[in-house]
Fold:
Amino acid sequence: GELTMFNKGTAIYACGILNSVKQHRLLSICAQTLYNLTSSDYFEGMERVIKALLTLPIANGFDATPIQIKGLVNCCRFPQLRERMLDDGSLGIFQAYVASLNNTPDTKQKFDMVFYLTVCIRCFSESKLCLHDLVTKGTIELLEQLYRYCSENARVLVIKSIRNLLKIVHSFPGYIYAAAVDIVSGLAHDSKNVVTLQYASSCFHIFAQDNVRNDRKLAMLLIRALPKLLTSVDPVTQYYVVETAGNMFFSSGCGDVSDLQTLVLKFVEASPNITDNAAIQALTVAFAKLSQESKYMDMLIQNKVLFRIIKLLLGIAEEYRGNYVIQESCC
Structure:
């Protein structure tokens, strides 16, 4: 099959003539040949196929982009190829396609291509050695444009990619950091998918640990997204969102009292439904910190929820007698 074609030199010949091809019929045949080669198992020399695929010439009557993107999906299955794919300009193909989406009719092919792009980016983000290049070459800005066109399945891949990229969050320039917060906030607001919201809560947890870089605007994006996540019954989401909310109560970037009050009250409302043990411990720690701040005590008294909190904490303390942190926090 495809491997035999390569071994016999068919692919090498196709790669060699591509630079001089101007007729779209011949170009389409060569492009399809290259795509077929990417569908095989890994073979030595596949890098040459990728290079040829990425440098397909432009011809009237033939758009190579779908074949290029699908071929790259096939190639990014192989971790050993991912760095080379980035070096050879894969992201440039992606960026050009995303830039055209606004003027592209909503067809099945369009949404398929968007999904394939998210598959590629997710695969790249799984490779530690690709992370720096992905960030510096515009992947997060690309995802900020792309996610608005994504199906729910594609959005799962977007949020997983962002979570992987946040492994090097401390290297993000300010504008990239802001774009990442914007994407996660948008996905958290729009999605009902359990996995998407789980990963969004994990991303928010990272942003909160970083104090959202003391950026008030970004802090408010988090605060406005958290009330929805606090209603989750997923244990992982519960843990991350409770921890995040506890951090955001004391963030120096929080200045909007009304939004902060909404978050505090939603935190109180959701508290009885928290079932994850780690989340319950984080919950009691957060309430212990709140009780030491006069502005929060006044807020709880004015909204007549203080007694509800005390009753909840007494019940938790009774149930978790062997947990020192919970006992200390509840007292």
Observations:
- The radius of gyration is 25 Å.
- The longest helix spans residues 108-125.
- DSSP finds 20 helices and no strands in the chain.
- The CA atoms of residues 204 and 244 lie 7 Å apart.
